[in-house]
Amino acid sequence: EKVFALIPEERSDVPLRVRGEIPAFLRGTYLLNGPARFARGGQRYGHWLDGDGMVCALRFGADGPRLTARFVRSGKLADEEAAGRALYRAFGTAFPGDRLVRGIALESPINVSVYPFGGVLLAFGEQGLPWELDPETLETRGLYPFGGALNPLSPFAAHPKIDPETGDLFNFGISFSATQPSLNLYRFDAAGKLAYRRRAPLDFPCSLHDFCLSREHAVFHLGPYLLDMAALAGGRTLLDSLRWEPERGSRLLILRREDGELLTSVPVGDRYVLHGINAFEDGDRLIVDVLELDRPVYDQYRVPDLFETVSPGRPVRFEIDLETGRLAGRTEIAYDLAPDFPAIDPAHLGRPYEDFWMLGISRTGTPGRKTFDQLVHASWAHPDHVEVWTAPPGWYLGGEPAFAPNPGGQGGAVICQRFDAGTGESAFLVFDAFAVAAGPVAVLPLDAPVHLGFHAGFVPEG
């Protein structure tokens, strides 16, 4: 409850104290986006996805760590600040007289993710165009329509994938329609020029948050979490307009990356995936790694009562036979405590890899309010064993545990957030990526609190 009552402060290049020792190789910027403000004009948001987005840039340099933090001043934020109240319906909160965009879509806060691309910094909300930020000051520059190739109503997800070799950006968006819902796949070159936009028909209007990209394929886990557009238009929140129908089954939709052509659809059970981990080709097999949950998790994001009845989930590897288009194998990692926010070395996106990191909830299966309190290192080389650090009681973790490679050799660091409910102190934590169970090697406490964020990444210096 204290986390969502915070009033985060904007900051400009503020030096941070250090407890412990920051690895000497750690040079670059940890970028984080997340919902930071949950009230305006006496109105409060009741869902984690609804808060105003704030981007943090934690810079590691020779003169020590420094923090800049800014709210993303989107059109929604500007309108509501001017009015002194909430104007738009949110994902999980409705207000009397609230608005939808053209009566059919949410005006989403820009609070999910942030990526450097083409010399700019892009902050993303759910299913809408990103907003451009100044890479140094984080000041908001404006909507980013990719040179006019897209418009404000173009469906565009918060999880683009950027090829580590070519710099090409891939993303998707769902067109919800009562007659024929479809998936849009986009490809942009490294300069932001649209290479293609392809549409694939969907059997039902499924909610989809993330996807996986390999060297040759784009892969989408389509779970039967369906959006009722009539309910949304009739005044319900988006959360209350979603229905979970597991009897329909879940599938992997596989498109060819080169041109966006739909190749096949593979049944993979009846569970739900919020986040992918990675994908790559291995001979005539396509390997697709995801965090598979027993059911959708959005109804567990009600604030302040997070994760009261959260269901188990686990990392799962699907092996797809590309010749037959069938599921050829399934492997689970031995960790089922509602994992989320998976992270890999971004240099391995779409390539063979073994290691990844994620957050987990130790009290999964026990009713009651709780949140992330475990940092987990897992490896597909050893699926029966994971390395876990559990935070002390009253410490809450947040922020995707971003991997920062050691440019001089093996190893690396992992960075995430911590909020101490007992003292009210916020901090960033730095871990040895391959010894997380030993606890943080450095703690960077803040003089004023900062929100627990969603997605993050690390940009090496230079």
Describe the fold and architecture.
It is a single chain. With 462 residues, the protein is mainly β. The chain has one domain: 7 Propeller (Methylamine Dehydrogenase, Chain H). 4% of the residues lie in helices and 43% in strands. It is built from three helices and 34 strands. It has helices at residues 2-5, 75-83, 229-233, and strands at 11-15, 19-20, 28-37, 39-40, 43-44, 52-61, 64-71, 113-117, 120-124, 131-133, 140-143, 161-162, 169-175, 182-188, 194-201, 212-213, 217-222, 225-227, 242-244, 251-256, 262-267, 272-282, 285-293, 313-321, 326-332, 340-343, 355-360, 374-379, 386-390, 395-405, 412-420, 425-432, 442-445, 456-460. Strands 1-7-6-3-34 form a five-stranded antiparallel β-sheet, with no helix packed on it. A hairpin with a 2-residue loop joins strand 6 (52-61) and strand 7. The longest helix is centred in the N-terminal third of the chain and has 9 residues, at 75-83. The chain is globular and about 55 Å long.
Task: Quickly count the helices.
Answer: 3
Classify the fold: give the CATH topology: Methylamine Dehydrogenase, Chain H
Task: Report the span from N to C terminus.
Answer: 40 Å
Q: By helix and strand content, what is the structural category?
A: mainly beta
Query: How many structural domains in the coordinates?
Result: 1
Q: From the coordinates shown, what is the CATH architecture?
A: 7 Propeller
The proportion of residues in beta strands is: 35-45%
Tell me about the biggest sheet?
Answer: 5 strands, antiparallel
| Uncertain runs | none
Overall number of strands: 34
CATH class: Mainly Beta
Computed CA radius of gyration, to the nearest angstrom: 21 Å
Overall 3D geometry?
globular
In which order are the strands of the major sheet placed?
A: 1-7-6-3-34
Percent helix, as a range, is under 10%
Mean pLDDT: 96
